[in-house]
Design brief:
It is a single chain. The chain has a 19-stranded mixed β-barrel. Helix content is 3%, strand content 64%. It is mostly beta strands. It has a single domain, classed as Beta Barrel (Porin). GO terms for molecular function: porin activity; voltage-gated monoatomic anion channel activity. Keywords: Ion transport, Membrane, Porin, Transmembrane, Transmembrane beta strand, Transport. Belongs to the eukaryotic mitochondrial porin (TC 1.B.8.1) family.
């Protein structure tokens, strides 16, 4: 793949990942293992709203091919097949679900040193079509995304974004929901390894005058331990503690609670990722 501006979905992704990745919104325990042959297996048990659920996922990567299959307790099966370089500098992704066949889609991604293009079509009788285009460089990029509904012949979504990336920071602006929502994010790295960082994100919905402001960050306690925290203007506080118990094997403990309702039971999650 060429080192170009990246996909449209990469705009604002660095700040989003720092504020959402590894954070759990329910009581959850998961264990992941990975073999030397490239097969990864993940088992998850979760409890949310008094209801218990679980799923098993398996991933396999070989050369330019990646396969991901997930089965949950309700016998729903989802599968992702991704193949790179069928056409040079491209990736083709097929998503299939059972028994909900109509939610499947086929996506094509093309990468160029100064542009990227994605096109996705649903696998049903009246398939929706999504297209995105990003122009620029790894330092500066702008892009747009649109969704077209073939049954009505109307655009069901359109989004635009711009991002500026420097070695120690990244700022992004995304205008979405057909121009009804604007989201601005900024992340600044405080060390060369990018383990310690500060991030802020503000989102405004014009139709309701609703604002959501979130601040957070990460701190590398040592080479094996990482602490992350976030707080939004609704009083939701989240924390993640991640420790590498043995090389490439991580234990992650996550918690979230409402500072405006301290009588409520905080939510906790634990995950264990084992790799050879």
């Amino acid at each position: 793949m060429s080192k170009g501006p990246g996909l449209f979905l990469d705009i604002g992704k660095k700040a989003k990942d720092l504020l959402t990745k590894d954070y759990l919104s329910d009581h959850r325990f998961s264990v992941s293992t990975c073999s030397e042959s490239g097969v990864a297996l993940t088992t998850t048990a979760a409890k949310k709203g008094g209801y218990s659920s679980g799923d098993v996922a398996a991933q396999y990567k070989y050369k330019n091919t990646f396969v991901d299959v997930k089965v949950d307790t309700e016998s729903n099966i989802s599968a992702i097949l991704a193949v790179a370089d069928i056409v040079p500098s491209s990736r083709t992704i097929a998503t299939l679900k059972f028994p909900n066949y109509e939610s499947g889609k086929l996506e094509f991604q093309y990468f160029h040193p100064h542009a990227s293009l994605t096109a996705a079509v649903g696998l049903n009788q009246a398939p929706p079509v999504d297209v995105s285009l990003t122009l620029g460089t790894p330092t500066f990029a702008l892009g747009a995304e649109a969704g077209y509904e073939t049954t009505s012949g109307k655009l069901i979504k359109y989004t635009a974004g711009i991002t500026v990336t420097k070695p120690d920071s990244c700022a992004s602006v995304i205008l979405g929901d057909k121009g009804d929502t604007i989201k601005v994010s900024y992340i600044h790295y405080l060390d060369q390894l990018k383990r310690t960082a500060a991030v802020g994100e503000i989102s405004r919905k014009f139709s309701t005058n609703e604002n959501i402001f979130t601040v957070g960050g990460s701190y590398g306690i040592d080479s094996l331990t990482l602490l992350k925290m976030k707080l939004n203007n609704h009083g939701t506080l989240g924390a993640v503690l991640q420790h590498e118990v043995i090389p490439k094997s991580l234990v992650t403990i996550s918690s979230e609670f409402d500072t405006r309702a301290l009588d409520r039971t905080p939510r906790f999650g634990v995950s264990l990722a084992l790799k050879p």
